[in-house]
Amino acid sequence: MSAPTDTDVVAVVTGLAAAAQKASRGLATLTTAQKDAVLLAAAAAIDAAADVILAANAEDVDRAEAAGTEAALIDRLRLTPERIGGITGGLRQVAALPDPVGQVVSGKTLPNGLDLRQIRVPLGVVGFVYEARPNVTVDGFGIAFKSGNAVLLRGSSSAASSNAALVDVLRGVLSDNAVSADAVALLPSESRDSVTALIQARGLVDVVIPRGGAGLISAVVRDATVPTIETGTGNCHVYVHADADIDIATRIVLNAKTRRPSVCNTVESVLVDKAIAADALAPLTSALQAQGVVIHGDEPGMEPATEEDWHREYLSLDIAVKVVDGLDEAIDHIDTYGTGHTEAIITRSLQAAQEFTARVDAAAVMVNASTAFTDGEQFGFGAEIGISTQKLHARGPMGLTELTSTKWLVWGDGQVRPA
Amino acid sequence: MSAPTDTDVVAVVTGLAAAAQKASRGLATLTTAQKDAVLLAAAAAIDAAADVILAANAEDVDRAEAAGTEAALIDRLRLTPERIGGITGGLRQVAALPDPVGQVVSGKTLPNGLDLRQIRVPLGVVGFVYEARPNVTVDGFGIAFKSGNAVLLRGSSSAASSNAALVDVLRGVLSDNAVSADAVALLPSESRDSVTALIQARGLVDVVIPRGGAGLISAVVRDATVPTIETGTGNCHVYVHADADIDIATRIVLNAKTRRPSVCNTVESVLVDKAIAADALAPLTSALQAQGVVIHGDEPGMEPATEEDWHREYLSLDIAVKVVDGLDEAIDHIDTYGTGHTEAIITRSLQAAQEFTARVDAAAVMVNASTAFTDGEQFGFGAEIGISTQKLHARGPMGLTELTSTKWLVWGDGQVRPA
Questions:
Q1: A416, part of any domain
Q2: 8 A C-beta contact, residue B13 and residue B187
């Protein structure tokens, strides 16, 4: 099959978006029980179709292997019966979560008798742009559907067969449950054109959430005319304050760097206060080096650091270490190089902790805790669609509530507004 | 003075934005008492500088008159001692409002002992783009400052002298109160280039809110790389249901159209149910015509309507009237032509009211009430910076809270995340 031309892709994406918008109107009035029944039916249908899904996934994996894709990426792409169990378990978990739609956020009766309520409603049509892992296809559907939204999924071309098989099952379940199948659709993934068409489908798509590398996210933000939510760029810091407990500092930095180096809440730079550097640097660096972490910095025995290192989101067993002259320099450094994800201070000083948490501007600011805790599951959301690093609409881990908007209901008995 | 070149304007705007961002860091940690003191001092300083401000305003008015500007626009531009009193009264009112910054939105202690709090914080740097009225300059500063934000003001060139005089006073007050004067700045208004520079100052500006005509708003949304909030496009409908009280319908339509035809919550189309049209049309149209309203529609005695009329936001003593065949057609019409601002049903049927409010997707959905009630002051916000017609971040009237974001504070005593 040859790749469609730009115009073809735009027409396809716009058509799917218009159908999704129409479908979204029906979703908004489904009851929680109706939505949960669909989610459980989807889990059962995916379990039942495991063979078909695994066969489709094998096509993706074969193609990736033939193309010489690196083993780590192929592992992310690969489905197994166990991973399918994880996917359907996720759907059942979302079914069990509280439904944000219909929650009354605020309300009052005005002096003229008008009854005012602000209630949660779905956003409408949500677009997800994401990479490799096929489980995101089902997770994205589950979270969007539970919060009453239609969803347009733009996965990576490497997972095209797996995603198509999964979305086929989901659309079938919707039809079987008297819900428009257009509430979920997979966009073409042959080229970036479908991303461009999605982020410019103004009036049809209510928000696009890109999950992926910095390149994808900045391209989406630059070219989008529909609102977007930036996710997951994390140049996170741990500041080891003059009054830090060095054992705690070492344990936290080690955990925040080595637990899963490739995720966005990993610490990338450690700022060590000059006042404690003589005591803290040796245990900290030797603990990191013992775990195979390469240390970039200006101190003896480190890889010489350049300006670039303070900006780097390594996402690997690398870390930058800088000695700073007090809290002000630490905060200046974070203001300059941080991405507003997660910033932590290690200290026994209440005053330092209060000042750090008040002055540092990030989605999560931590005291004596590992940056690895910035995570929807850890925060108790039950499901996470990404971690917002912007300030508008949602900041930090996003769950079901972050996929809703509100509307004002105003009930009266004939009130008019005086001149 | 010749208009600066593009590059000059970009440099000026970027410089002011960078200074505002620096200033915003200090604003975030001001106490409510400190902010209120500045707001009250600003009110006093504007009162004291009334002569200077009126003289500057006279320059703007003279220039507008010399250019043959229409009287209504000149009236919007003109300041009087009374209007200056209104401006400073507004500042005092904002000082008296509760401060959203620091509010705890949610929180809990996790099983591992981590203490989690989600608190309100300022957005950071807010840009306002607006037209003619110089009072918006001070209102915008007041609301932004109370919510802890630095603000970049891009008013219209017709009010350039008035705005410059007002912002001079505000910057002086900030300096006198040991707050960075860069927390408020007036952008050049000679050309649209400064708007473009503002909406593309990514990394420096956190949100831009355009207030103005549809042309301005769509240009901002199209070219922006910083997040924006769409405001104020209101193609609002009143649906007169089969079971409506005709007196109430007439009173509400009349109020919603004639109270202030030029504002965004004005009703622009009336949908009359076929089942009640024979009884309702005559009193409705004669009441409107008695107030000088021109009726566009397909019925006898109306100006013939075209497709364009259903889209029109007249903002004048014009209204479109359409006979619809039941609730479904009314909602379809609203889905097709509405702008998501305010939609109302007039009915005595609980079932119709429930269905209309559940299915119609707009910032405000009303039952037996005038669309004119969609307004921050009416909703009890105390101050309003615009009415959002988008679903992300804020929907409907925006007050102080809508100019905030949140951050997560996580306090621990050495917790690390298990593998």
A1: no
A2: yes
Domain of residue B38, CATH code: 3.40.605.10
Whether residue B98 is found in the same domain as residue B115: yes
Q: Distance from A329 to chain B by nearest Cα, in Å?
A: 14
Q: Which two tokens stand for residue B406?
A: 């949140």
**Domain assignment present for B177:** yes
Residues B224 and B288 in one domain: no
Question: Hey, is the C-beta of B50 within 8 angstroms of any chain A C-beta?
Answer: no
So what's the pLDDT on residue A5? Answer: 55
Q: Please give the structure tokens belonging to residue A87.
A: 């996917």
What's the whole-number mean pLDDT along residues A297-323?
94
In this predicted model, what pLDDT tens digit does every residue of A400-415 receive, in sequence order?
999 999 999 999 999 9
Judge whether B139 lies within some domain: yes
Question: What is the C-alpha separation between A403 and A227, in angstroms, rounded?
Answer: 13
**ipTM of model:** 0.92
What are the residue ranges in chain B where pLDDT is below 70?
Answer: 1-5
Q: Does A370 sit within 8 Å of B415, measured CB to CB?
A: yes
Closest CA to A39 of A125, A127, A141: A141
Do B250 and B142 share a structural domain? no
Q: Do B255 and A372 touch (CB under 8 A)?
A: no
Radius of gyration of chain B (CA): 24
pLDDT at A219: 84
Contact A415 B373 (CB under 8 A): yes
Of B94, B91, B166, nearest to B134 by C-alpha is B166
> Is residue A397 within 8 Å of residue B106, measured between CB atoms?
no
> Are B297 and B406 members of one domain?
no
Within this chain, do residues A260 and A339 fall inside the same structural domain, yes or no?
yes
CA dist list (Å): A383 to A261, A380, A393, A401: 21, 8, 18, 10
Partnered with residue B210 across adjacent β-strands are: B129
Q: Summarize pLDDT for A55-73 with one digit per residue, the tens.
A: 999 999 999 999 999 888 8
DSSP string, B42-53: HHHHHHHTHHHH
State the Cα–Cα distance between residues B245 and B232, nearest whole angstrom.
30
Rounded distance, CA B412 to CA A397, Å? 19
Going by C-alpha positions, the residue among B246, B252, B311, B318 that lies closest to residue B283 is B246
Residues B123, A380: C-beta atoms closer than 8 Å: no
B 146-185 residues inside an 8 A Cβ radius of A: none
Pairwise CA distance, residues B305 & A101, whole Å: 38
10 Å CB burial of residue B325 (0-12, 13-18, 19+) is: exposed
Nearest by CB to A417, from B206, B357, B378: name it: B378
Residue of A366, A352, A255 lying closest to B117 (CA atoms): A366
Dist. CA B281–CA B298, nearest whole Å: 12
Q: Does B110 touch chain A (CB under 8 A)?
A: yes
User: Does residue A209 register a pLDDT over 60?
Assistant: yes
- E-strand stretches of A90-183: 104-109, 115-122, 125-129, 150-154
The total of structural domains in chain B comes to 2
